[in-house]
Amino acid sequence: MHFTLDQEDERFRQEVRAFLKAKLPQDLAERNRRGYHPLREDTRQWTKILHAQGWSGANWPTSWGGTGWSPVRQFIFEEESILAGAPAVDTAGFKMIGPVIMTFANETMKAQYGPRILSGDVFWGQGFSEPNAGSDLGSLTTRAERDGDEYVINGQKIWTSFVETADMIFILAKTDPQARQRGISMILVDRQAPGVTIRPIYDIGESHSLNEVFFDDVRVPVSNLVGEEGMGWTYAKFLLENERAFSAEWPRNNAHLARLRTLLNTPQHDGRRLIDRPGFASRLAQLNTDLLALRWLSLRALHEKAGGQVRLPVGSLLKIRGSELLQKIGELQVEALGSHASYVYPDPLGDAQRQRTWPPGPNTAPGIMADYFYRRATTIYGGANEVQRTIIARSFLEL
Ligand SMILES: Cc1cc2nc3c(=O)[nH]c(=O)nc-3n(C[C@H](O)[C@H](O)[C@H](O)COP(=O)(O)OP(=O)(O)OC[C@H]3O[C@@H](n4cnc5c(N)ncnc54)[C@H](O)[C@@H]3O)c2cc1C
């Protein structure tokens, strides 16, 4: 196990930096550095710039039209991109449904969606969770009944992120209500299909990325079934493992800590800096140490993955450590803001329906409270941390 990157990887890092410097539009970067949800148009624009470079499918093999980069290079790319303020490509497309389609779907479906995901021409929502089925996803009740060459879908999903601007939704639905997991199938639904209703949920940070989705007699062609009927649970497990993918939170933690450092080093109205106070300095040092430990854990996992020797549920380990650290960094950012943290500075571009105005405040304030509130969810989404702890315990006890 090496804790340093080899020279070729460092050269690759310089190449990525030069690319970001030349090609990343600064208005997109500014918005993302503040931690607001990326606008769909920004994501599309950036995906197309990456696609022109052949870099949009950073985590995809060359046989799917991706870069074929090693896990370590994907890590470096993500690290540099987030630090520079680049919006992430559509996670639901590139990291969730894309790999499922390219691994399990028929050739027609692969040809229909693979290239359009890579070019940023189709965006996705993940319709798994329901009001009574979150951690216990197997108890979902959305139904897909076969009627000739179509499925008729009825039911409700909740917490469906960014679906309001997606083109397609991949859902889990029961095609056989008698069987439990064997009765679940994965089906692609056009967001604009008749019978699909999307209702926004505004979060405590006053932003809109979450939704309820209702399906009332929605008809979709049978050709929208992914892989085989009744195999949706197997595909979902594959997808969720990718969702907690290696190193997912390190690059974001790194960018947030960099922002915290800037906050602490910026002179306040009295000319003093918070970093000169021992309380802030020691807590920053502790967070920095935790971040380095997370980096090494991530790199170790990547090396093991590359060598095909993964023994521990590292996805679950990284998810717990990364999500908790994001919240701790957020807490110190909020403390550093002092009284300016009493206002949330909601995203001025986030929802055209709602007028946003900011009261006067330091340039460092906007974005911090909104992001802090949103990051309370990091220990819940992608599989709640309590459930990840059970997965780790089971693997050690070999249950
Ligand atoms: C910001 C955000 C974005 C999301 N985006 C999406 C999305 O795009 N698509 C989608 O399908 N879903 C999405 N989700 C839903 C997310 O996957 C669920 O919230 C999550 O799986 C937990 O399910 P739940 O909310 O029903 O909570 P529950 O499962 O009811 O859990 C409630 C509490 O009980 C604990 N608990 C439950 N079961 C166990 C157990 N077996 N052992 C120990 N503790 C347990 C949990 O840890 C939690 O603390 C999102 C959620 C959030 C917060």
UniProtKB/TrEMBL annotation:
Keywords: FAD, Flavoprotein, Oxidoreductase. Residues 127-218 form the Acyl-CoA oxidase/dehydrogenase middle domain. The keyword Chaperone does not apply. Its cofactor is FAD. It holds the Pfam family Acyl-CoA_dh_N. The keyword Flavoprotein applies. Residues 7-121 form the Acyl-CoA dehydrogenase/oxidase N-terminal domain. InterPro entries: Acyl-CoA_Oxase/DH_mid-dom, Acyl-CoA_Oxase/DH_mid-dom_sf, AcylCo_DH-like_C, AcylCo_DH/oxidase_C, AcylCoA_DH/ox_N, AcylCoA_DH/ox_N_sf, AcylCoA_DH/oxidase_NM_dom_sf, Mycobact_Acyl-CoA_DH. Residues 230-396 form the Acyl-CoA dehydrogenase/oxidase C-terminal domain. PANTHER family: ACYL-COA DEHYDROGENASE, ACYL-COA DEHYDROGENASE FADE29. Belongs to the acyl-CoA dehydrogenase family. This is Acyl-CoA dehydrogenase. It comes from Pseudomonas mohnii.
